[in-house]
Amino acid sequence: MRKHFVCHINTRKFRACHSPPMYDRQIMADRLREARLKKAADMGVKLTQEDVAAATNVSRSHVANAEGAKTGISLDAAYALAQFYDVSLDYLTGLSIAPLQSPGGVFQNPEERTLIRSWRAMDEAERVALAIVIDRLGAKASPSDAA
């Protein structure tokens, strides 16, 4: 059964409306757990919620409650977990089926993923400096194009 709330429509009359769609905690809970288990398998270790909490600076109870769909999760905690698991926030909340979105849809290799993450983490001055380095390396690689 759909929950209703009262909304105002430019008059003094009120009517019942459908509530706006919200994210499904269970989707996020399932994806958080799957991401933890996948990361553990990739690392070849048992990765507990306590380990995740220590690595992300998110409390263990917050991690456990989010994985259990018992409570919502703060944006800061969701961001920290997404970064740790190497997935997008869209994926965690159910807005995407792909764990990590990329401009072209798929990264060609792990180095591309690392470069994109590094670029996104840079400030503007670092990006300008990197662009200068790339231009100089490109000029060395093809001297005929540099003229």
TrEMBL record:
UniProt GO molecular function: DNA binding
InterPro entries: Cro/C1-type_HTH, Lambda_DNA-bd_dom_sf
Record-annotated HTH cro/C1-type domain positions: 32-92
Designated name of the protein: HTH cro/C1-type domain-containing protein
Organism: Acetobacter oeni
